[in-house]
Specification:
With about 425 residues, the chain is an alpha+beta fold. It has 14 helices and 17 strands. It has helices spanning about 1-40, 75-80, 80-85, 95, 100-105, 125-135, 190-200, 235-240, 245-255, 255-265, 290-295, 305-320, 345-360, 410-430, and strands spanning about 50, 60-65, 65-70, 115-120, 140-145, 150-160, 210, 215-220, 220-225, 230-235, 270-275, 275, 320-325, 335-340, 370-380, 385-395, 400-405. The strands form 6 sheets. The chain has a 5-stranded antiparallel β-sheet with strand order 6-5-17-16-15, with helices on both faces. β8 (about 215-220) and β9 form a beta hairpin. The chain is globular and about 95 Å long. Residues about 40-45 have low confidence and may be disordered.
């Protein structure tokens, strides 16, 4: 009897081990099946695929001979965070996000399609190269899109990795896509949100004036300004990027309304770029009191913004408040979107951004471009600053929105502005 019992226990244990092993295999198959199939694809002469930019330039491909990338090293680096690599080292790359579209992997059969698959993206690799050169080895991000169609032409994050160089030692943070997966203190570019919230929340904003004696004191806390602007209009306050004025404006708007607008404009949530998840932003939602609210209204406090969120926001401003969701897949050009902002509010903020350039930044810095913009120099508390330059072209023939960020890059206009100008000039010429 004992012998039979022992045998039964042994059989049961073996059965449990088999079931456990099968469960592990199924889970690993679900997670890694397409990677196993990818290894088979390179040996299957009938399986091949390519990833190209909007003009048909090769970004990556695979066939029976193996995997391939652009022949140009600079293109591979500039477009790394767009293409990714075949081994999923950066999760936001097209080769990871859209692999099923290329490979046609089936969980049911465990195989890939046996015909060639080609996928075209909206990006312009030549413009990406210009953006990459402009960043010049510095950590940063450059985004450029068509705000009428949503097509993303430039998505460059640095540092980058050459996927074709197996021996390369990547720089720290090279696998992070700063355009989509990271957040940064916004500094004065956040004043665009505060301005829009004020237009919709505070009566007679355009008839109000704001005093600046180099600081604004509230509840014993000094909000320091970068200059002394004396009495100024709402429009001049944005052009001056006056901390004193926008601290006052944020308090007038109130925290409840500021939080509501930050949420409505998409700054608190992560988004999806053709299924690629983006980072969520941050703004103080719990009660903080007027001094901290004042800091938050000028883009400091605990504010954090993802560059892609800012691209969506300035795109909506440029397009009378209507946001055509940005996209990377060239087949997805349908013009669908949402009314992110009241049209009158968007038009007013857009005019203020144009005035910024005319009155302070200088049209001569952006020759032949009808540009509307806002700079940001975000203080980080250690003596360094993020440099931002965001905006759009008020040009029906060239409806481009842009975001340039230099991580710890100094002043926004001086350092980020020229990168935007270089990329925009090239985009307009094409």
């Amino acid at each position: 009897m004992n012998k039979i019992s022992n045998r039964a226990v042994s059989v049961l244990l073996i059965a449990l081990l088999i079931i456990a092993g099968l469960a592990v295999y199924i889970l690993r198959y679900i997670d890694h099946g397409r990677d196993w199939a990818a290894a088979f694809s390179t040996a299957n002469s009938l399986s091949s695929g390519s990833l190209t930019d909007r003009d048909g330039r090769l970004l990556a491909s695979y066939d029976s001979a193996g995997v391939h990338y652009s022949d140009d090293p600079e293109t591979r680096l500039a477009c790394y965070h767009i293409t990714g690599d075949f081994w999923n080292r950066t999760g936001t790359g097209a080769l990871s996000a859209f692999w099923n579209s290329l490979q046609g992997f089936s969980l049911l059969t465990g195989s890939t399609r046996s015909r060639a698959a080609d996928l075209s993206l909206t990006v312009d690799s030549e413009l990406c190269r210009l953006a990459y050169r402009g960043l010049n080895g510095r950590k940063g991000a450059v985004l450029l899109s068509n705000y009428k169609t949503g097509e993303i032409l430039v998505l460059v994050s640095t540092p980058a990795v050459d996927p074709a160089d197996a021996d390369a030692v990547p720089q720290e943070g090279a696998y992070i896509n700063r355009c989509l997966s990271a957040t940064f203190t916004p500094g004065s570019v956040f004043k665009l949100l505060t301005a829009a919230a004020a237009i919709e929340s505070v009566p007679n904003m355009d008839s109000r004036s704001f005093d600046c004696e180099g600081k604004f004191t509230i509840a014993g806390v000094d909000i320091k300004c970068t200059g002394t602007h004396y009495t100024q209009s709402f429009e001049d306050a944005l052009a001056n990027s006056c901390n004193s004025a926008f601290a006052q404006i944020a308090v007038k708007v109130g925290q409840t309304s500021m939080v509501e607008h930050a949420r409505n404009y998409g700054f608190l949530d992560g988004h999806s770029l053709d299924g690629i998840p983006t980072a969520a932003g941050q703004y103080p939602t719990a009660f903080v009191g007027d001094p901290e609210l004042a800091w938050s209204g000028i883009g400091q406090s605990t504010d954090l913004v993802n560059p892609y969120q800012m691209l969506r926001f300035v795109s909506a401003i440029a397009n009378n408040g209507f946001l055509v969701e940005p996209h990377l897949l060239e087949t997805k050009v349908d013009g669908s979107g949402t009314q992110l902002m009241n049209a009158a509010t968007a038009q007013r903020v857009g005019r203020m951004m144009s005035y910024n350039v005319v009155s302070h930044y200088g049209r001569e810095s952006f020759p032949a471009l009808n540009i509307a913009a806002k700079t940001g120099t975000a203080e980080l508390g250690d003596g360094t600053t993020h440099a931002w330059f965001v905006g759009f072209l008020a040009d029906e023939s060239h409806p481009y929105a842009f975001v340039v960020l230099l991580e710890r890059g100094g002043g926004g206009l001086v350092n980020a502005g020229p990168i935007a100008n270089t990329v925009l000039q090239a985009a307009v010429r094409e």
